[in-house]
């Protein structure tokens, strides 16, 4: 009986040691797991107090675009939060100082957030998701126009991306509040055809039939008096392109 008790006690002791070893191994691995998980959008929402390479990327982008003047140190402090709020305000986003999914998209960081499905390498440095979104906009806004007219609409979006007057990403420009009728009425969610996709690629490759225009409108449908005050550069199909 005593021998059985001693064996049982030894077994329990070994089990306790093994459980402790597993616990400490899990604890040691946890920070790495959290970093890896942090690359996905569910854990990657950045806010004041966050640190890391994603924060550094946000700071670099905002500094390059003139929203942020602080140090690119990967530390999400009050200055970074104010810069994010400034960016969100200009892009028509909820101004909360937090880099969530929509702000990631407007910053052109969906790949870092793990939402692109690995799609990258679009025309001239644009991602495939950029190309597809631009094609959706072209299809929704100009699918009844000539091919040149469709490229022209894509060129206007890209001209806005490059202009200091507008958001700095394709998503930011397209989803800027009240910028495009197709976003307001939901047509932006239609599936683009191959013609629209080709037009998006041509615009991204530098074809600009508008000569640098930032605006276009259909004079038969436009209701804003302001848009008629813009200087007309060219008319392509039913659209007037202006600066």
Arrangement of strands in the largest sheet: 1-3-2
CATH topological fold name of the largest domain:
Arc Repressor Mutant, subunit A
Poorly predicted runs: 26-43, 111-123
Q: How many distinct domains?
A: 2
Secondary-structure-based class equals mainly alpha
Give the overall shape, derived from the CA principal axes: elongated
The separation of the N and C termini measures 97 Å
| Percent helix range | 40-55%
Query: Under the CATH scheme, which architecture of the largest domain would be assigned?
Result: Orthogonal Bundle
Classify the oligomer. single chain
What is the overall number of helices? 9
Structural overview:
It is a single chain. The chain has 243 residues and is mainly alpha-helical. It folds into two domains: 53-106, Muramoyl-pentapeptide Carboxypeptidase, domain 1 (Orthogonal Bundle), CATH 1.10.101; 123-242, Arc Repressor Mutant, subunit A. The protein contains nine helices and three strands; from the N terminus they run H-H-H-H-H-H-H-H-H-E-E-E. It has helices spanning 2-37, 53-64, 78-90, 101-106, 128-142, 147-162, 170-174, 181-184, 194-204, and strands at 215-217, 232-236, 239-242. A three-stranded antiparallel sheet has the order 1-3-2, covered by helices on one side. The longest helix has 36 residues, at 2-37. The protein is elongated, with a radius of gyration of 26 Å. The model is unreliable at 26-43 and 111-123 (pLDDT under 50).
């Amino acid at each position: 009986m005593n021998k059985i008790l001693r064996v049982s006690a030894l077994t329990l002791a070994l089990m306790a040691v093994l459980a402790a070893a597993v616990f400490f191994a899990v604890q040691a691995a946890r920070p790495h797991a959290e970093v890896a998980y942090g690359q996905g959008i569910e854990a990657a929402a950045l806010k004041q107090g966050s640190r890391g390479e994603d924060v550094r990327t946000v700071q670099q982008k905002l500094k390059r675009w003139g929203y942020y003047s602080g140090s690119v140190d990967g530390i999400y402090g009050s200055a970074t939060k104010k810069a994010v709020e400034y960016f969100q305000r200009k892009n028509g986003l909820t101004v909360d100082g937090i880099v969530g999914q929509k702000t990631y998209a407007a910053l052109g960081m969906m790949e870092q957030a793990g939402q692109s499905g690995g799609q990258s390498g679009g025309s001239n440095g644009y991602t495939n998701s950029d190309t597809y979104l631009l094609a959706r906009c072209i299809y929704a806004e100009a699918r009844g126009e000539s091919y040149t007219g469709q490229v022209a609409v894509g060129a206007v979006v890209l001209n806005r991306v490059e202009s200091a007057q507008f958001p700095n990403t394709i998503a930011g420009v397209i989803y800027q509040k009240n910028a495009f009728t197709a976003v307001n009425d939901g047509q932006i969610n239609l599936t683009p055809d191959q013609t629209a996709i080709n037009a998006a690629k041509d615009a991204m490759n530098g074809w600009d039939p508008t000569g640098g225009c930032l605006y276009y409108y259909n004079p038969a449908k436009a209701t804003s008096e302001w848009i008629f005050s813009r200087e007309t550069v060219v008319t392509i199909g039913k659209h007037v392109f202006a600066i």
